Amino acid sequence: MDTIESTVARYTLRDDGIVVTRAINPEVPRTRETAAATLDVLAEFIGEERKPMLWDQRATPRLSPQVWVEVIQRVERLAVAVAFVTDEGTGHEQGSFQKAISLLLIPTRTFSAEAPAIAWLQQFRD
After folding, report:
1. From CA 105, how far away is CA 89, in angstroms rounded?
2. Which phi and psi angles does 78 have, rounded to 5°?
C-alpha cells in the first residue's frame, strides 16, 4: 500500500489496485480550486491507468454544486468505477451529492460500510 495527502484528502493505493479516498482537514474550505488541486495530486499519484475507487464520504464537508461539477468532470478520467461509502447523515449533509453522482458515466454504487464497497470494486480491477 502507498498513501499520499493533498490539502483536503488522503489517498491510499491498496495492493489490489483500489484507491481509497478520505477527507482530511475539514477546516480547509472546499472550493473548485481546492477540488482541482487535490484531484491533480490524485492523478499524479495513480498515473495514467484508471483505477477502481472507494470514496469515503462520511467525513467530507458539504460541497457546493460548483465543486461537485469539478469533481465529476475529473473523477471519470481517474476511476473505472466508484463506490461511495456514506452514513445516514451524509446524503443530507452533501447537498447535491446524489444528483452529482447520477451524472457519472462510470459504474457507481453507494454503500453504508467499507467491506461490501471493496468487494464490489474487486470486479473492476484489471
Report:
1. 25
2. -105, -25
Report how far residue 97's alpha carbon sits from residue 75's, in angstroms, rounded to the nearest whole number. Answer: 14
Q: What 8-state DSSP symbol labels residue 105?
A: S
Q: Look-up: residue for cell 495530486?
A: 41
Residue 21 CA, chain-centre distance (Å), reads 5
Contact 86, 77 (CB under 8 A): no
pLDDT (0 to 100) of residue 92: 42
The H or E element that residue 73 is part of is: helix 65-78
Strands annotated E in 14-105: 19-23, 51-56, 79-85
Q: How many residues does the chain have?
A: 126
Quote the CA–CA distance of 107 and 7 in Å, as a whole number. Answer: 27
The C-alpha atoms of residue 75 and residue 89 are separated, in whole angstroms, by 23
- Average confidence (pLDDT) over 95-99: 54
pTM: 0.85
Q: Which one-letter DSSP state was computed for residue 103?
A: T
Residue 67 burial (CB count, 10 A): 22
Cell digits for 1? 500500500
